[in-house]
Every structure is written in structure tokens, then in C-alpha cells.
């Protein structure tokens, strides 16, 4: 809401949240979904609240009611990570913890999609437990990749045995790769980026064909499903984040041809046949292709990406708009509608469209402007740009992660000396007095110029400091189609 400029509504929502939300309830919740939606949403709202005009408490961003709620919600998820492997169960009861009969089989994305939110929470609260469990889960997946460097789709979190051995970039795996890259950017973490780059090599070697990405058997690399899933359309945007723009654009244009064929992306598209897959013809207004367009447009300014945005707006308005919202397209072949509107349409699709066409939005800040806030730990730079979106499109300010940690006493002493030095240099009387006593040909103007240079250096230093992507609803223990072995419901 703040990104879209609706400040009064943002304030109203924050006020409602501040009245209290009870997480101590007897409800079974998805660990993955609760993290990306609830924890991620609260953290993002917390970090955006001051910019939105909400009065924040002393100590913000290291404290605040929304941060405390995010921490409370995240603590309810921690029991799920208490497994021999460190990989979490897929579901946890918010009151009682993991149910005794809970299945240990979880999808890869449900294990590897925590580092953005949990590391942010650890850095803001000072409690390392959240980042620690997220890292342990990531390392467990890395440890259990196949000999050819691929991960499967579902794994037993107790035994670390792969239950579904299909490897790809789409449903059930997608946000694991996304979080390796975004976690590396957020934390400036070389290990996470190294993991992704190794995966990227294996993905290119075994799953990439003519700029499409197919599904393969994780141990053999043989093609099992020559299908494109709409959830995979995040991949060009992810490629752009690591600088692989040329490959990203070629893959994006493949996906865009599918969009133009149907006026949207079907859930599954059979690449050899060039048509939809039976029972997967729908388009629930997913954001992934538009998300990639936004990232790629920031990188290239290619007008083709704006054309996709225009097509998306026109398609959604023409075939999806109803009296009380925007309906899911049940079948793209005839544009029949379903009686539902997914939450990610508002959380992601509309947001990414807005940001694609709003080049001056603060989210796109390049660091030329920023805010300096005082925290219990000293000065802190915020809102300098470089926001990292979680997989539900909640933006996290990476600069905030440096606001709430204690620094070594020696560092404070050096900073105090430097601050005193610059303060003296700025004093004009001091400069004139020094100039009159110097006697070596160095004028007051020279000293003032030197001071100005130091001031510029200090300013520049400040400037530089700074979908429903879930387990697939379709089961992998399913019948296989004769052509393509595509995902189908058990029914």
C-alpha cells in the first residue's frame, strides 16, 4: 500500500495490527506460507512504516510493534525445524508444534525459502536463531544434491531421501533458487551465491534446451517432462539479478510468445506440442512474468518489456475484470472465469505492474538520496535503494540489517575521533586561525577547499553504505501423461 501511495490506508492497516494479533491458536499452518506472507509482510511493513508517515517508537527500526509481531509469528514456526536434518516440516500447529502424525515429506521450496525473512529478523532483533535455522536448512539441501548437481522436488526431512526426483526450476523448487540469490545480495554472502552459481551450471547443462527449461531426472539428467510452468517465469528476473541479461532476455521472449498466444500464461504449456496441458489451462493472474519484466526493464530499458506490461494490463482488464474484483481465468482457450481472486494478484501482480511503469518510485532509488536515522547503536542509513523483494513481493531494505548490531568499542572510538575531526574542519573560525598562523603559503581558501573535499567524501561514503511460489498443489505421486509426463491430480 505504501508503494502504491495509499498512505492513509497503510496507516489504518498498521493501526489494526497494533491492536494485537494472537498467534497462540490451535491452527495447523503452512510453515512456508506463514513465513513469506505473515513474517515477510510484517517485516516489510515495519521497515516501511516511518516512510509511510506512521509514528514509530524510540529505537526503530530495531524495535516496534510490527517487528515484535513478526518475531512472535516466526517463533511459532521454529518447532518445524527440529528435525535430524535441520530441514523443516511443511506444516506446524501454532499452539502445539508439529503434530505427531505430520508427514515428513516437504518440497524443496518449502525448505529453502526462509533466509530473507529469518536473516532480517535476526539482524533486527539480535537473536541469531532464525538465521541459523534458515542457513542449516539451505546447507542440508546443498549437501543432498545429486552427483550431477541437481535437487529434486520433494524430500523426506527425517531421512533426507528424495521422494520426487524431478529436477527443474518451477513448482516445488522455484523459490529455493530465488532465495539463494536474494539471500546472497541481502547479506553480501559469497557462500550462498556460490551455491546458486553451481546450481546454475547444472541447470544449464541438463535442463536448458533452446532457452526453455525442462524437467529432468535429478540423478541421470534425462528429460522427464518437456513442459513450461507459469511459475517458472520468475527465472529471467533472477538471471538479471546475477547479470546474465542476454540469456534472461532470450528466455523471457520465449515465455512472452506463450503470453501472446493465449492472453496470459497457462499453468502448464507443452513445449513440443506448443499448446496447453489437459486440466492445466488456467491463468490465476500470476505475477512471475511481470516480475521478470520489471527486473529486466530496470537492467535494459528495452521497450519490449513495457509492451508486455501493456499487454498484461489490457488482458487483465478485458478478460478478467468483474464487478467486485479480478477473477481467475479458468481456461485460457475460451477465457472462461472461475469464482475466485488469488491474494497474490494484489500482493504481487499489480505491484510489479505498477513498479514497471513508475520509474521514479522510491523502490527504484539508486542511492543518490537516503535517510539517516539514530538508533540505540548509532547512526544508520535507510531508504537508499537496493530493496530485496521476498517471494511474496514484500520489499526489505538491506540497509536496515546494519542498523541494530553492536560494534566493537575500537570502531566507535575511531568514529568519534573522525567525527570530532570533521567537526573542527567545518569550523570557519578555526580555518582562518590556522591559515593566519601557518606561514607556509597555504591559504584559508586552500584549507576550505580541503574541508569541502572531505565533506564530499563523507557524503559519498554515506551514499554507498546502504506468485504464489509454493509447493505445487498437484501431487507428484500422480499418473503420468503418455506425452511429456506432466503433473496431474490424483483424481
UniProtKB/TrEMBL annotation:
Recorded coiled-coil stretches: none
A Pfam short name: Glyco_hydro_47
Active site per UniProt: 33, 174, 267, 288
Keyword annotations from UniProtKB, A to Z: Calcium, Endoplasmic reticulum, Glycoprotein, Glycosidase, Hydrolase, Metal-binding, Unfolded protein response
Residues involved in Ca(2+) binding: 391
Major localization class: endoplasmic reticulum
Stretches the record annotates as Disordered: 441-472
UniProt GO cellular component terms: endoplasmic reticulum quality control compartment; membrane
Function: Involved in the endoplasmic reticulum-associated degradation (ERAD) pathway that targets misfolded glycoproteins for degradation in an N-glycan-dependent manner. May initiate ERAD by promoting the first mannose trimming step of ERAD substrates, from Man9GlcNAc2 to Man8GlcNAc2. Seems to recognize and bind to exposed hydrophobic regions in target proteins.
PANTHER family in the cross-refs: ER DEGRADATION-ENHANCING ALPHA-MANNOSIDASE-LIKE PROTEIN 2
Protein name, per record: alpha-1,2-Mannosidase
Source species: Pterocles gutturalis (yellow-throated sandgrouse)
Source organism phylogeny: Eukaryota, Metazoa, Chordata, Craniata, Vertebrata
Amino acid at each position: 500500500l505504501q508503494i502504491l501511495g495509499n498512505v492513509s490506508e497503510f496507516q489504518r492497516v498498521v493501526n489494526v495490527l497494533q491492536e494485537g494479533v494472537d498467534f497462540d491458536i490451535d491452527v495447523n499452518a503452512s510453515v512456508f506460507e506463514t513465513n513469506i506472507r505473515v513474517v515477510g509482510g510484517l517485516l516489510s511493513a515495519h521497515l516501511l512504516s516511518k516512510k509511510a508517515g506512521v509514528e514509530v517508537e524510540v529505537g526503530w527500526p530495531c524495535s516496534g510493534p510490527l517487528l515484535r509481531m513478526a518475531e512472535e509469528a516466526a517463533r511459532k514456526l521454529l518447532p518445524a525445524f527440529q528435525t535430524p536434518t535441520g530441514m523443516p516440516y511443511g506444516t506446524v500447529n501454532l499452539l502445539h508444534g508439529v503434530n505427531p502424525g505430520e508427514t515428513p515429506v516437504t518440497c524443496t521450496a518449502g525448505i529453502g525459502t526462509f533466509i530473507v525473512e529469518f536473516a532480517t529478523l535476526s539482524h533486527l532483533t539480535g537473536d541469531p536463531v532464525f538465521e541459523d535455522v534458515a542457513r542449516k536448512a539451505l546447507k542440508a539441501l546443498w549437501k543432498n544434491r545429486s552427483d550431477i548437481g541437481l535437487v529434486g522436488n520433494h524430500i523426506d526431512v527425517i531421512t533426507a531421501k528424495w521422494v520426487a526426483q524431478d529436477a527443474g526450476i518451477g513448482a516445488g523448487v522455484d523459490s529455493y533458487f530465488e532465495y539463494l540469490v536474494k539471500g546472497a545480495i541481502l547479506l553480501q554472502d559469497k557462500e550462498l551465491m556460490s551455491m546458486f552459481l553451481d546450481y546454475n551450471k547444472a541447470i544449464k547443462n541438463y535442463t536448458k534446451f533452446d532457452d526453455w527449461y525442462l524437467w529432468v531426472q535429478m540423478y541421470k539428467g534425462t528429460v522427464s517432462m518437456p513442459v513450461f510452468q507459469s511459475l517458472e517465469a520468475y527465472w529471467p528476473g533472477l538471471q538479471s539479478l546475477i547479470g546474465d541479461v542476454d540469456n534472461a532476455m532470450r528466455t523471457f521472449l520465449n515465455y512472452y510468445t506463450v503470453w501472446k498466444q493465449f492472453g496470459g500464461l497457462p499453468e502448464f504449456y507443452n513445449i513440443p506440442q506448443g499448446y496447453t496441458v489437459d486440466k492445466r489451462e488456467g491463468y490465476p493472474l500470476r505475477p512471475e512474468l511481470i516480475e521478470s519484466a520489471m527486473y529486466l526493464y530496470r537492467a535494459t530499458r528495452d521497450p519490449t518489456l513495457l509492451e508486455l506490461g501493456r499487454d498484461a494490463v489490457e488482458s487483465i482488464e478485458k478478460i478478467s475484470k468483474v464487478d467486485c474484483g479480478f477473477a481467475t481465468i479458468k481456461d485460457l482457450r475460451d477465457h472462461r472465469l472461475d469464482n475466485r481472486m488469488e491474494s497474490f494478484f494484489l500482493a504481487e501482480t499489480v505491484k510489479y505492474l505498477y513498479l514497471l511503469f513508475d520509474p521514479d518510485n522510491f523502490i527504484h532509488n539508486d542511492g543518490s538520496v537516503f535517510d539517516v536515522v539514530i538508533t540505540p547503536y548509532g547512526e544508520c542509513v535507510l531508504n537508499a535503494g537496493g530493496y530485496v523483494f521476498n517471494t511474496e513481493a514484500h520489499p526489505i531494505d538491506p540497509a536496515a540489517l546494519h542498523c541494530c548490531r553492536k560494534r566493537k568499542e575500537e570502531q566507535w572510538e575511531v568514529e568519534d575521533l573522525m567525527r570530532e575531526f570533521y567537526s573542527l574542519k567545518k569550523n570557519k573560525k578555526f580555518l582562518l586561525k590556522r591559515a593566519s598562523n601557518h606561514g607556509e603559503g597555504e591559504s584559508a581558501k586552500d584549507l576550505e577547499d580541503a574541508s569541502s573535499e572531505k565533506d564530499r567524501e563523507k557524503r559519498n561514503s554515506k551514499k554507498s553504505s546502504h506468485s504464489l511460489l509454493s509447493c505445487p498443489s498437484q501431487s507428484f505421486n500422480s499418473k503420468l501423461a503418455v506425452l511429456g509426463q506432466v503433473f496431474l491430480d490424483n483424481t
